[in-house]
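Subject: Sanity check before I submit

Could someone independently write out the structure tokens for this chain? I want to compare against mine line by line before I put it in a report. The sequence has 382 residues.
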Amino acid sequence: MSQASQQRITDLKVTGHLMTLQTGLFCISHAAGQQPPTAAGLPGVRISLPPVSAPGNVQIVTFEQDGWLGGRNNAALVRVRRGPAQVMITIYQEMNTRHDAPRLQVIQLSAESDPLPVPVPAAVPVESEAATPKEVPPVEAPVVQKPEIGAHIQRRGDVTGMLGEWMGVPGSQAWIEGFGIAPAHLIQSDDIEYQAVLGKGWLSPWVEGGQYCGSRGMALPILGLCVRLKGAAAKKFICRVTASFTDGTKIGPVENGEPVEADSLAPLEAFLVEILPRGADSKAKRGGRKRKQNAAEDLAALLEEEIDELEAEVLEEAAELLEETQLEDEIEEVIEEEIPVKPVRRAAKSQPRRASSSAQQATKKPKATGRGGARGRKPSRR
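---
Independent answer below. Compare away.
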């Protein structure tokens, strides 16, 4: 056997730690600003139960089923029902690597030991076998459609539905902990992928259609979602997402696989995913433009009718005013004919009378005599 055909075993640098947690719900995630992993996917972190632990006392939920977190941008949820309890953190690195070991941070989300109770539907009474059988006419079994979308909702548990229908109830204040999409019409599950919004700028890894994304029974809500089509389906169809959040925020419809989240980072309570052919979108726009054009034509016709009616009213009022003016003129002519107008003599202006000659003479000043009479000088004595 040649050396090339023999198996190669690469040694790794592996370190393990036991983390002790108290009762409650915890989020273990990568710290921000870490280096991307190498082509081999290292360094990486795995969270698992220790070799010795009480059954069912510690529950670990990760986006990967084997508890692998990778080197950055990932997280795990750990619920401890009765503390203190331990979880095992294992770090894998390449030999002689320059990458630092991944740094983790732990956040306690709740001090409760158990998730919120999920209501159980009331039991349906079943008739005993001893009861008298009744003849029931045969009824055709209804066609049951395969659910295309599912989610785990606070106080409701697992809920299923169809694409094009609301998942969750807007305004219910019941958050969504996780969801999955498996289209059965128009596209296949391989044509769609989605993410969950876990925090500001923090998204879960992309999950392919038909798989669950988020947590279940951990009392931890997701803060939004991101859905997109891929491959040939992205060229033929569009994916629209509309969402409602517990603080009353409503966003959408959003296309092109953009994250749908509230600015307040409120939990997601309901969402609507629609898969539509791209032609339907353009037809809807053309139909909208045609409806607008028809509405404009109807408005123009209505305005024209109102203008015609207004012109008729103005002409009618003008005719009535003309008739009234002519009638007034006729009445004035009749009055002038019946009552003659006498000429009025104008009184002559009174002129002031001239004063009598005696009065005029009395008013005259006596003339001065003598040599200086004119100037009022005394006569000189000789």
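---
OP: Matches mine. For the report I'm noting this point. The helical segments are 232-236, 278-338, 357-363.
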